Amino acid sequence: MKYLKALIVLVVFFGCLALVIIGQAHEGMGWLGLMLLGLAGLLVLLFLYNRRYTRADREQKKKLKARERAQRQG
């Protein structure tokens, strides 16, 4: 399952990158739309990648604050 997810992410990444590169080589509003679609895809992939780490940091901070509150009260 882990390898399938990595393969899907890799295919989407190269697909979005191809949209940006191909759209850059041409002129017109349609090509600009393709470039923006590729850029949006790359940003979504970046968000999904970073979400793992920011969520873990937030959970760790919550546990630390809860532990500090428990020590103050008891």
**SSE string, helix = H, strand = E?**
HH
pLDDT below 50 for ≥5 consecutive residues: which ranges?
Answer: none
Amino- and carboxy-terminal Cα gap: 45 Å
Summarize the main sheet.
Answer: none
In terms of structural class, how would the helical and strand content be classed?
mainly alpha
User: Which percent band covers the strand fraction?
Assistant: under 5%
How many strands? 0
Radius of gyration: 20 Å
The average pLDDT value, as a whole number, equals: 92
The domain count comes to: 1
Q: What's the overall geometry? A: elongated
Helix content: over 70%
Give a nutshell description of this structure.
This protein has helices spanning 2-24, 29-73. It is an all-alpha fold.
Task: Explain what this protein looks like in three dimensions.
By secondary structure, this protein is mostly helical. The chain has one domain (2-73). The protein is 92% helix and 0% strand. It is built from two helices and no strands. It has helices at 2-24, 29-73. The longest helix is centred in the C-terminal third of the chain and has 45 residues, at 29-73. The chain is elongated. The relative contact order is 0.10.
Keywords:
74 residues; mainly alpha; 2 helices; elongated
Annotate the secondary structure layout.
Blueprint: H1 2-24, H2 29-73
